[in-house]
Amino acid sequence: MSSSVLAPLVPVVLCIAVGFAIARIGWVRAGAIPDLANIVFLVLTPALLFRTMGQVRVQELDFAPVALYFSAVALLFGGTLALQGWTSAAAARALAHTFSNTVMIGVPFIGLVYGESGLVTLFTLVSLHSLILLTAATLVFELLLAPPGAAAGDGAPHARWRTLGRAVKSSIIHPVPLPILAGLAWGQTGWPVPGVLERVLALLGSAVGPTALLLVGITLAYTRIGEHWRGALRIALVKNLAMPLLVGAVAWALGLSGQAVAVMCTTAAMPVGANVLLFTQRYGTMQDEVSSAIAISTALALLTLPLALLGAQWLTR
């Protein structure tokens, strides 16, 4: 395996390992994980997203790789439901198969491998990632939960539309998409960010990578896989291997290549995102299996991400 593939992976592995070690020796307790996650998601990540997208013009964004990504998502999501049946468990697995950890692992990893231009491509995807996937999953779950033969007058359809509306709103008014949209809006004005604020945003944004990766290691140290490891491993294999292979196959079939496509393939190989667990908790299904799948897919990514990078290098030729 070429050193160009291993080079960006080494600091990722070491940061996760340090996080794992400091948790094991008791320097960081399990109760601190939610607070650390709030720092990453509510402070550091929005600063990086706003600062990066504030330097971009909307007309410069390329949505073709994003469309490629969601084409593969639709195939895998629909294929999971077709193979496993129209059930809440199948819907939860379909979401886990397709929802990537685009922030805690995706941002530092893509930044190391592809630099600022790669982050712009990633953030273009991130601006729609939760909105499309969580809204689609909400629609599926609401249809599954609808009483058979519900009449239009009993209020059930209206309740479902209200639920979908809340899902769309919460996917936009969120600490990830909102600073992306705000940054793009600021970039359209052409105004520079004031000097002091720019330095603060740069300082906070530079802390996303190491802090997020340390948090991944700390979380892994306190996660127990339990009796659901077989189902969780199946989810992890589909997410970490089948998803990037499908993105690559669609790109090959359409004759697409280049760095932006490589970023999409690499992002598709990221482990299962934590939002899937929050979603399963909301609907009361598959929490244990999905929780285990997040841990297994994160650990497995240390092996599968190099393979995804090799495939991504081939697409850039």
List keywords for this structure.
Na+/H+ antiporter like fold, cell membrane, transport, transmembrane, Na+/solute_symporter_sf, 317 residues, mainly alpha, 13 helices, transmembrane helix
Your description of this structure?
The chain is mainly α and 317 residues long. The protein has a single domain (3-146, 154-315), classed as Up-down Bundle (Na+/H+ antiporter like fold), CATH 1.20.1530.20. The chain has 13 helices and no strands. The protein has helices at residues 3-24, 33-53, 64-84, 88-98, 106-145, 156-172, 177-189, 195-206, 208-222, 229-254, 259-268, 275-283, 287-315. The mean pLDDT is 84.
Short description:
The protein has helices at residues 3-24, 33-53, 64-84, 88-98, 106-145, 156-172, 177-189, 195-206, 208-222, 229-254, 259-268, 275-283, 287-315. The protein has 317 residues and is mainly α. Its main location: membrane.
Helix content percent band = over 70%
CATH class: Mainly Alpha
Estimated structural class? mainly alpha
Spans where pLDDT lies below 50 across 5 or more residues: none
Total discrete domains: 1
What's the main sheet like? none
Termini gap: 17 Å
Q: So how many helices?
A: 13
CATH-defined fold name: Na+/H+ antiporter like fold
The whole-angstrom Rg is 19 Å
Rounded mean pLDDT is 84
Annotated CATH architecture = Up-down Bundle
**DSSP strand (E) fraction?**
under 5%
Order of helices and strands: HHHHHHHHHHHHH
Query: Can you tell me the overall shape?
Result: globular
Total beta strand runs:
0
